[in-house]
């Protein structure tokens, strides 16, 4: 039986909404010790990803423009590479090999359903051997 990333992905995710205050989001990333989190709208659709790198933009804004924050939507990345939940684990491994990403949001019908990481793929491949 072919395994899909739906079989191995993480489903308990920290997420933000576009209107989450950027300072609150930064505190969550730091407190949870995670490098980023998906951003979803009220319908559960993936609309972006907020990374610690994106959050560094606020340092620039504050230092040069006296801007004090704003919503996550002003800082998040909106060009997000995703994988479909039905993607075969071996195909997902190929995506990781051919990209610099350490994790991909997993979607089904444009809705966020999980996240798969390099760790998840390796763990799955070892379990199968």
Q: Based on the structure given, which CATH architecture is correct? A: Roll
Distance between the termini: 14 Å
The main β sheet shows up as: 3 strands, mixed
* Count of spatially separate domains: 1
Strand order in the largest sheet:
3-4-5
How many helices in DSSP terms? 4
Radius of gyration: 16 Å
CATH class membership:
Alpha Beta
* The CATH superfamily title: CBS-domain
Which structural category fits the helices and strands? alpha+beta
**Shape, principal axes of CA atoms:** elongated
Question: What is the string of SSEs from the N terminus onward?
Answer: HEEHEHEEH
* Strand runs, count: 5
Average pLDDT, rounded to a whole number, is: 91
* Low-confidence runs: none
Question: Could you describe the 3D structure shown?
Answer:
- By secondary structure, the chain is an alpha+beta fold.
- It has one domain (5-128): CBS-domain, CATH 3.10.580.10.
- The chain contains 4 helices and 5 strands; from the N terminus they run αββαβαββα.
- It has helices spanning 22-32, 52-65, 89-97, 118-128, and strands at 36-40, 46-51, 83-84, 103-108, 111-117.
- The strands form 2 sheets. A 3-stranded mixed beta sheet has the order 3-4-5. Strands 1-2 form a two-stranded antiparallel sheet.
- The radius of gyration is 16 Å and the shape is elongated.
- The model has no long low-confidence stretch (mean pLDDT 91).
């Amino acid at each position: 039986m072919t395994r899909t990333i739906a079989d191995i992905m993480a489903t308990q995710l920290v997420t933000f909404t576009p209107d989450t205050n950027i300072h609150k989001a930064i505190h969550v990333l730091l407190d949870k010790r995670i490098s980023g989190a998906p951003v979803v709208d009220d319908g559960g659709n993936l609309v972006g990803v907020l990374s610690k790198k994106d959050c560094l933009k606020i340092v620039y804004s504050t230092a040069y423009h006296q801007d004090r924050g704003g919503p996550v939507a002003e800082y998040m990345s909106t060009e997000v590479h995703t994988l479909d939940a039905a993607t075969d684990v071996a195909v997902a491994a190929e995506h990781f090999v051919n990209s610099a990403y350490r994790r991909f949001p997993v979607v089904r019908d444009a809705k966020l359903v999980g996240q798969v990481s390099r760790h998840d793929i390796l763990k799955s491949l070892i379990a199968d051997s």
